[in-house]
Specification:
9 helices, Endonuclease III, domain 1, mainly alpha, 2 strands, globular
């Protein structure tokens, strides 16, 4: 049986996420946006809660189509507030709309969101060599910098902890611990 990172539970959904997605570099804007939205909704909650609702989010948010989400009106906002399949937080739902709009501004400015976000790590994942749970940070100077920049541009729910989790999820940093079978991958 494969040894996984300390945070992976017995949930098959969690195992699949760890084995097939977490820490694998993502360069396409659609997936980068999906993870951004999921991470912002996760703030203050457990990641398994988000994974369990991911398909509901996908349906409710037009398959994470940022162009559609950016145009959501008050009626769509109200319907999302009533959708029991997602996290019904007023501020987080509003932030998804705002973040889609700002995401597209960044695309226009930099050619893609991917070029923008990956420039923080010189387009190469940072491979950490953490041995145990205590070694893995929840924030770094880099996540602080990215958070401040995104907030300045108008993003919401992108604090340093959220941004570090995002960096881990999309493979900007590889934080598989040394005892994890994905460590050397």
């Amino acid at each position: 049986m494969n040894q996984r990172c300390f945070w992976v539970t017995d949930s098959q959904l969690y195992r699949n996420y760890h084995d097939e997605e977490w820490g694998i570099p993502v360069y396409d804007d659609k997936t980068l946006f999906e993870f951004l939205i999921l991470e912002t909704f996760q703030a203050g909650l457990s990641w398994i809660t988000i994974l369990n609702k991911r398909e509901n989010f996908r349906k409710a948010l037009d398959n994470f189509d940022y162009k559609k989400i950016a145009t959501y009106n008050e009626s769509k906002y109200e319907s999302l507030l009533k959708d029991a399949g997602i996290i019904r937080n007023k501020l987080k739902i509003r932030s998804a709309i705002t973040n889609a709009q700002v995401f597209m501004k960044i695309q226009k400015e930099f050619g893609s969101f991917s070029k923008f976000i990956w420039s923080y790590v010189n387009n190469e994942p940072i491979v950490n060599k953490f041995q145990k749970r205590e070694d893995v940070p929840t924030t770094t100077i880099l996540s602080d910098t990215i958070s401040k920049d995104l907030k300045k541009r108008g993003f919401k729910f992108v604090g340093s902890t959220v941004m570090y989790a995002y960096m881990q999820a999309v493979g900007m940093v590889n934080d598989h611990t040394a005892d994890c079978f994905k460590y050397s991958n």
